[in-house]
Amino acid sequence: MQPDTGTTKLSIIIPTLNEEKLISNILNIFNKEFKEKFRAELIISDGGSSDETLNLITDNVDKVIRHDGEFKQNISRGRNQGAKSSKGDVLVFLNADTFIYNPDELFEEALELLNHPDNVAIAFPIRVFKDEEKLFDKIFHGFYNLYVKMLNNVGIGMGRGECHMVKRDYFEILNGYNENLYAGEDYDLYKRLRKKGKIVFANKLVVYESPRRYRLFGYPKVIYNWLINSVFVTLFKKSVSKDWEPVR
Length: 248
Fold this sequence. Notes:
alpha/beta, Spore Coat Polysaccharide Biosynthesis Protein SpsA, Chain A, 7-stranded mixed β-sheet
């Protein structure tokens, strides 16, 4: 892919809340060369960090959206606020505790998949950081990635919220993430997107995440929370969780 001086193609939106420990890892991926190559802009949508997160923002960040309202901002609102200030044809929502080891390859191949007119979004396999991955992490995420792939293959949209890539037009048609959901908002969005077109599960394009939530709460509790919230989102269009406890 050659550099292009045209309009913004890619808007990378990272919601943050007290992410001083990990924010630099993800920001350093998107250097000047990457941004020029992919005609990308980088947006931070901060939910009211009280640590050093905002002081660690680097020059490659194009916009910082700060939440200063009286109510507590959930991740759905944070992502939507970032999207509203973006200009790209393709929206990428990345959690602040993620990492991509081969960003050029991942974005080249994902954008190629998204070029097909029938495809509206990309779902990515998720794994734990390579240097922190244990055997059970590998087993669980291997099976869970197959589960996400299966849901998309049978026509039920699904994409884990660690990384969403969506065509802007369809995101706006659906009014983005449901801001009334404090959990399950990722499943809800992709379920609605599937009614507009195809969601591609990009088998080999892995996005890595911190295992901090699994280490603190354990897999049984995390899986239970995922399951109960997805059931309520499907049946009642609301989440059981009224807050998603930050783990830092």
